[in-house]
Amino acid sequence: MERLTVAIDGPAGAGKSSAARLVAKRLGYLYIDTGAMYRAFTWAMLQEKIDIGDAEAVRALTERIDIRLEPLEDKCRVFVGEREVTDAIRTQDISSRVSSVSALAVVREKLVQLQRNMAEGGGVILDGRDIGTVVLPKADLKIFLTASVESRARRRYLEVQAKGGTETLEDIAASIASRDDMDSHRAVSPLRQADDAILLDNSELNLEETADAITDLIQQRC
Ligand code: C5P
Question: Which parts of the sequence bind ATP (predicted)?
Fold first, then answer.
């Protein structure tokens, strides 16, 4: 069976990562979480106390940073240099800063290049905001995965609660809406559905059903 290059884009909390990871595992594909790369860059900026307005320091960081993703069972471990940041990049602090960092052209140039290199050869699923429009405009299959803000916030809320977090449903809905707004209105590579992407609204689907729908789409193309 042909091994495709699959692009999944969509807003925050649509379940792209969980669904993509599950589908990749089923099909033996490599899963590349591009959002984790922007989060890792944001983490490194905080670590090095680099101000987002300091263009020269940000550019210098793009030249020396080493971001790596390592698949492990159904997880994707994230490293900056030798330091594992898999959990450290999932904090609310990083979530509230990452959209400003990902709006910087110099950061996008660096990470898009890395993503294209990782996707070479097919048998890959990348999820993000600009995969079908910018990173892999010739992807074999493009999916735009979305859901209502309410259902996305509710899912995140349940995840946060399961981990013992204290954020309220309202806080989470506001944070998701703010990230969507910044990601869709930035000048460089804004979040948008590629003309040739298939729209999948999973407001009424659970994770398994979302993964089934994506798997079917991939198998129809093979
Ligand atoms: O996917 P996740 O929600 O972890 O992504 C975090 C942030 O990284 C997004 O809100 C967006 O600002 C940025 N991002 C991006 N382009 C991508 C993936 C993520 O700008 N391809």
Answer: 10-18
Q: Which domain CATH number covers 167?
A: 3.40.50.300
> Which domain does 91 fall in, by range?
4-212
- Integer angstrom CA distances of residue 55 from 47, 67, 105: 17, 20, 10
- Is a pLDDT exceeding 90 seen at residue 201? yes
Residue 92's pLDDT is 87
CB 131 within 8 A of CB 143: no
The preferred substitution site among 86, 98, 118 for testing ligand 1, maximizing ligand atoms within 8 Å of CB, is 98
Distance from Cα 15 to the centre of ligand 1, integer Å:
13
What is the CA(54)–ligand 1 centre distance, in A?
Answer: 21
* Residue at 217 is within a domain: no
What ipTM was estimated for this complex?
Answer: 0.99
Q: What is the pTM of this model?
A: 0.96
Is the beta carbon of 129 within 6 A of some atom in ligand 1? Answer: yes
